[in-house]
Every structure is written in structure tokens, then in C-alpha cells.
Write the C-alpha cells for this entry.
Amino acid sequence: MSTIRTAGLLTVGTALVLSTASPSHAAAGAYVALGDSFSAGTGTKSKVDDCYRSQLGYPALLAQKSGLNLDYQACSGATTAGVRDNQLGTLNSSTAFVTMTIGGNDVGFADVLLECAKPGWLSDCEGAIAGGTAILNGSLPGRYDELFGTIKNKATNAKVTVGGYPHLFNGEDCNAATFFSPDEQSSLNSSTSSLGELIKSKAGAYGFGYVDPVSTFKGHAVCDNPEWINGLSNPVEESYHPNRAGNEAYASLFGGAVGKAYRAPSDRSASAEQASPAQQVQAQANYVLSLKLTSPSNLAKAQTAGVKPSEVKRLNSALRSSDTATVQQALDGLQALDRQM
């Protein structure tokens, strides 16, 4: 198996090993980062491979500051079954620390967010949330039992810490291309809390630690200032994930849990390069155009909901304008239609 060394990162198979010690000590006291996109650093706009595994993700930040030897197994899109089947191969009795976030993909949170972000006349947000809740209350507890039991049997001496998810919303939708109502945002935050309660309970049953990011992220949700969570972003995979500042916050939380203090920069500002205002407006317009609002079936749904199809078609057509102000007015107009429902 070939190994490529770049900037302190070793690519081994399908995982990344962050080397913070000399090669002779690289296997001792290993820190294995498992989990989904929240552990892979999605949202930092610094993708490394198909699993994302950003050097600005909280596991890499924690390893770099604490001198830990990171085995980066986390992968964007992972479910509990995906972690069990694809990420546990390096766990053994010499594993010292394990961290992870997991469960969001099991309840289909990304699909729920995309559904709830649509205009109200197209969206079944309530039904999407109910579907995720059914999984949370039905099969997910058993999935955690299977995963956590396997980890405990493999990493017999490790300190294992599982993280929850922050509330994404503050009741305001400041993104012109999304259509979250305050009630929808509240329901989504409540669902996140329910998932966190399950994770905490199951982690405790196996002697694992739990970190709750909700209070730490309060005041830093989407549309807060500063945001530690991206709103709708380009590319879309970066959306509704902790940005660079959010990963600093996660590193602080997990650092305290594993006994490796991590001090984040005092400003914790999201330092990723931002697109120009015109580019942001165009990206938002392209996203709304991708919803195909003027398809016959969607126009029929608009009419059924009391929204004039002719107005939807007019505003949708304006999204194709080369004038940024015209596009912005069209985006605002579509949000106004949504709020009239």
C-alpha cells in the first residue's frame, strides 16, 4: 500500500493520519476520529478527499494543538452503519481517544433541511420532520447499540466521546434563496435536541462521554453575527455545517472532554474567502432555479396554495437577468409570496 506524505498528512488507504509525532511514536496513543460530515470538517471550504476530511475540521485542529496522532476515519455522509462497516478497522487496545458525531444522516437531516428550505407551497416540511422522528424513535436506538457496542469491544482502553449537534437556526431566515418559517426553524431545532438526548443516553449506557454543543453555539446560528454555522452555501454540501469558527468551537468542546485543552482564537471568525455580493446573489438565484418552480406540477401546487402561478413565472424569469439588483428583487419577491401563505 502506497503512502503519500503531504503537509503533515499521511494518506493511508481511505483514511488520513495526521502525524504530530515522530514516526517511531506514530502508533502510540492513537486518536481515532469517527463519524459523519460534522466530524469530517464539511463546512470549512477546505475539502481534502471524497470524505472531505478537512485539515480545518475539529479532529485535525485538536490533534495539531494537543500533539495527538490522528487517524482520520470520519466521512461525510456516514450513517451509524457506515461507521460500523467502514471506519472501525484501526481501533484496538492501544487506541487512546475516540471522538465522533453520528446519527444526523440516519434520520435524513440533510434531506429534511432541503425539503423545509423550499417555498411553502412546494414543501412538506412537517412530513419530512415526522419521518426523521419516526426513525429516531424507532430503529435508531438499536443502531446506536450496535455501533457503540462494537466500538467498546474493539477500543477496550479508549476514552470515547460522542458529540451532539448544535441548533442551526435563530428564528430568522436571512438567506434570499431559502424559505424557512420561524415555526419550521423551531421544529428543526427541537428535533436536533431530541437527537442529542438520545445520543447522550446511549453514549452514557456504554460509558462514553458526551459533549453538547447547543449552549456553546447559542448566538452563533445561521443568520447570527458571527455565524459559526453556514447558511445556504456554494457548493451546497457546505451548507448547514459548522464553518471554520464552528470547528474551533467543537475542538474546544472535545478537547475538554478528552483531557486535551484546546484554546480557540479569540475572534473565532469564519476566515474562509467569501464570494462577492454579486456572486452570492447569482448563486442563490441558480439554487432557486434548480427548484423548477415553473414546472406544470409546481405551478399547480402554487395555485392550490393560493399563490398566483403568473407571479411565480414572472419572478422566476427575472432570476435569469444579468442585472444583480433585478435578481435580488426577484428573490425577495419569491420570499414575500411564501410569507403570504
